[in-house]
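Minutes, methods subgroup
Present: GH (chair), OT, SY

1. OT presented the first of two proteins processed in the latest run. Sequence and structure tokens recorded below as shown on screen.
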Amino acid sequence: MKALLFIALVAGCAADGQVRLDEGWPTKPPDYDDTTSAWTRHTTMRGDFQEALAFDAVFKSPDWRAAHAWRDAEHRGLAGPARDALVAQAQADMAGPYEVEILFTTWDRRENDLDRGKKSVWKVVLVDEQGKEIEPIEIVKDKRPGYVLHAEFPAYGDFATAYVARFPHTQPVLGASVRSVRMRVSSERGGTEVIWAAK
């Protein structure tokens, strides 16, 4: 059984392009589409005879928050002090919990229950560079309309449920010397994880 779980973890682990894992705020506004793509990770896990789950995770890093704030300011027609205030608020938000947008699709809809906390079928954790698991403060459904979610997160699919997972900042997972951060999702049926690797 342990061997099968290991195989599921290795097979499901996804490592896409490398990103900047320090907590510094970007000096110029990053492109939103490129930044969202760079910070999106995708993986799947198979059950006995079918795909058990597929999920995408978007880490709301300083780069992502900056890109999102500048795009929001552009969409709202903000300039000068109003735009600066919006960007400053996005930067201040980085001092709060780490946030990851999870776009979660399960073959059995009853298993799509990340917002049930300890009662969920799934255990979701961030894993720091030392291998320490960091449990979420909360995971809540992102109840915005699907067309809004897709505009913000292109990986959002027709059958996905969107969640916002918040993790305590008291356990730093980003930093100048950090080489990788992982998110692991597991249940009685196995597990999978995604990884953000440093440039």
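2. SY then presented the second protein from the same run.
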Amino acid sequence: MLQQIEELLIAPTTGDDAPSLARMEDTLTEGYAKALALEAERWRLERRLGEVARAVDGPDVSSLADELSSLANRLSTADGELSHLRALLGSLHERARTLRMAARS
């Protein structure tokens, strides 16, 4: 998904090689769906982090610490991916908006 967006952003804005508005809008739709999926994954990870943190007083503290570390790493990765995706989607949204305005003129 990120590669598709990046390709659209570096493509020419005019001419035969310029991507169509429909292609940009389709990619935006897919990108927004991906962002929602990443946000859902973040929510699941945060919920699990809370569950594991509340269980730290139990007898299996070592494995819980490992799981906490793993969850924190996965959450950090998801945050980075989501941030990058949102930035690219913002740029593509602006490009599509500009193309829409040019088509109306």
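Chair's summary of item 2: Helices lie at 2-10, 21-54, 61-104.
Next meeting: continue with the remaining queue.
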